[in-house]
Amino acid sequence: MVSQSEIQKRRTFAIISHPDAGKTTLTEKFLLFGGAIQTAGAVKNNKIKKTATSDFMEIEKQRGISVATSVMGFEYNGVKINLLDTPGHKDFAEDTYRTLTAVDSVILVVDCVKGVEEQTERLMGVCRMRNTPVIVFVNKMDRPGKDPFDLMDELEEKLNIRVRPLSWPINGGPDFKGVYNIYRNNLNLFNANKTSIERDIVSISDLQDPQVDSILGRDAAKIREDVELVEGVYDTFNKEAYRKGEVAPVFFGSALNNFGVQEILDTFLEIAPSPLPRKTSERMVSPEENAFSGFVFKIHANLDPKHRDRIAFLRICSGVFERNKFYQHVRLGRTFRFTNPTSFMAQEKSIIDSAYPGDVIGLYDTGNFKIGDTLTEGESFMYQGIPSFSPEIFREVVNADPMKSKQLEKGINQLTDEGVAQLFTKQPGNRKIIGTVGELQFDVIKYRLQHEYGASCTFHAMPLYKACWITSENKTEFENFLRQKGNHIAYDKDGLPVYLAETKGMLDIMIRHYPDIDFSFMSEHN
Ligand code: GDP
């Protein structure tokens, strides 16, 4: 039986940002607070900086590391925190989108100099789709950045969410003095280059307290004025609105200087949701239910090329997962048991006997899982809402070694099950089209086909704009469309039809000509 307290004490979240905004630095500071690591510099940035081919060699080398840091579990103030890592490189954005389905909330890091960047917008788009609660951390306040009020407007405009500052900066850049914590009503004073984790917090009765003048001198008037404006412009903070994903609380700080980090962490623990009921194909499933269930949101490839092992990352949604117990793999209709499920505590992996809702565990897999798979104690339902987005680069697979066509087929199937890329099949001739969001994946696929499956292939460029999933209530029009546009139709791995649009113009024409057909850039697995 799963106890309420095990559920209540868990917070499962991800930190997201545009590359370079400070995600790795903030993650590291969190781990320091959690005692999960002892020294700064222990967390590797999973960012890839070089050109395509050498990048991939780099990934290969770092594979062990990135698996270990895929999930970072630690305890802080009696709370079990599961921090899920997301790849920084935009070519792996799909991996990030899927990880976001496994969390209950996110912390979004924004660089105060650069403001809202492209990748931030996309990631937030995914959070908005699922109404995931978001807390914003405006980072790098030690650098001269944008005016904080302008930044708030930019966040609201570009991220399509209301914001509510819970702290406010006293100056910025070289004059940065710290923040006034609106939520707790205290002053948090900034010391650059502080490496220890104690902090300078001054309790005040309110901002009119004469202490504020003696500490801040000339800046006292400005912060009083700013905070008055904040209180006037923004609604009072409402935890429920935050939890529904309607309003994002905002904090200011500097991750590098460990400033404002404990402040956001403490508030996060207080307001962020513990595991919530989740939607499945049949019904809502609540974490308190006795029967275990969970879903696979990520598959990580071979750690050891000699064994074709993979690790499937499973998010537990209800009940208690137990080692060596038989569970139902709903899609395959078969039972499996797991003798060595692993949990991830910062950089260590260890075998666990049981795990609770909100936890993420690694299951060794020999090719039975694909992304979106559900495990239960027998009931047939599938967790929903794992998105696939239309790829941006398309290439046809051409077998370069006819003796190895079986290996190629198997390799392509397994790699696309892992979510490395999307596979579309086009008739006649069963032509295989691989779609990705970045160039890098083609190198990854080629390399892995060769090293893991002994197959070789080349890719033929296909100048396509997007693949749109098509659906319609109007059966006759739908069938007409499939027939008339047969040349531009392919099927994804779930057998769903997509329209391969060559240009945006062509797609617009189709949308106009076939008003009963719905063209979507996104599909949900299951
Ligand atoms: P990520 O790509 O989002 O993971 O970003 P990183 O954490 O790797 O940070 C990118 C760069 O910004 C690194 O050089 C950090 O040292 C630097 N950085 C992170 N936080 C701060 C900060 O608060 N102030 C300043 N000045 N630099 C920071």
Automatic annotation (TrEMBL):
The keyword Transmembrane does not apply. Keywords: Cytoplasm, GTP-binding, Nucleotide-binding, Protein biosynthesis. It comes from the Bacteria. PROSITE patterns: G_TR_1, G_TR_2. Its main location: cytoplasm. CDD domains: RF3, RF3_III. Pfam families: EF-G_D2, GTP_EFTU, RF3_C. The keyword Transmembrane helix does not apply. InterPro entries: EF-G-like_DII, EFG_III/V, G_TR_CS, P-loop_NTPase, PrfC, RF3_C, RF3_dom_3_sf, RF3_GTP-bd. GTP binds at residues 17-24, 85-89, 139-142. It is found in: Cytoplasm. Residues 8-276 form the Tr-type G domain. Belongs to the TRAFAC class translation factor GTPase superfamily. Classic translation factor GTPase family. PrfC subfamily. Increases the formation of ribosomal termination complexes and stimulates activities of RF-1 and RF-2. It binds guanine nucleotides and has strong preference for UGA stop codons. It may interact directly with the ribosome. The stimulation of RF-1 and RF-2 is significantly reduced by GTP and GDP, but not by GMP. This is Peptide chain release factor 3. The lineage of its organism: Bacteria, Pseudomonadati, Bacteroidota, Cytophagia, Cytophagales. The gene is prfC.
